[in-house]
Write a structure and sequence with these properties.
About 60% of the residues lie in helices and about 10% in strands. It is of the alpha+beta class. Strands 1-3-2-4-5 form a five-stranded mixed beta sheet, with helices on both faces. α1 packs across α7 (about 205-220), α3 packs antiparallel against α4 (about 155-170) and α4 (about 155-170) packs across α5 (about 180-190). About 35% of the residues are buried.
Amino acid sequence: MSGESKRAAARQRIAEKRAAETAARAAAERRRRTVLGGVVAAAVLVIALVVVFVVQSSRTSTDADAAAPAGTVADGTAFPVGQADAPVTVSVYADFQCPVCQRFEEINGDTLEQLVADGQITLEYRPIAILDRFSTTDYSTRALNAAAVVADKAGIDAFVQFSDLLFANQPEEGGEGLSDDQLIEYAAQAGATGEAVEQGITDLRFEDWVADVTEASSQADVNATPTVLVDGEPLDNTTQLTPEGITAAVEAAAQG
């Protein structure tokens, strides 16, 4: 092999070696970036989780400080009706904007009332506001706030009567909902009158509490209305939300 050929071969080997080294460095850099990216992503995830935790903790703290209306259970999330020592507790989650809840009350209201009168159940009304998007004025929140004002100023019996009025006069979804003046009129029909009632309704006195109980229902895995629990066990919405189904579930719960 001539000298020139040897030099060419040497240059070729050097070029190949440098190319290999360059490729190795590029691969190493890619691995480093991948690892670094993973670390950064993990850090971002941790930060996100911390932020979520902080936001949730802040929300819980704020909600816990929300003033609850008079007459609610110890944690402020329900209005109890009936004897406190009744053997079975029935909890009803409902939204005043919910047409199915209206139908539920029409079908089962008398049965629940009779079970309370017979001392078989404590009935917990657990109204929530999850359907604000179906009105142009956040009607679910306004209606529940008004119900809370009625309970606070006139008692549980007035709250029950007011709730019946709201369902009997339920507005269609997608509109403005009942006006504050209409809510005030129905409050008066239920026995809650006066300046404090009117201001409580127009100023959303219990708006924070409404958010509180709605958030509490979400944390309790309630994602639809009506939802009915008998001693904490949910009834099947398709088969048990009837007078017969509720009565049978109450009797079974009473027998343990």
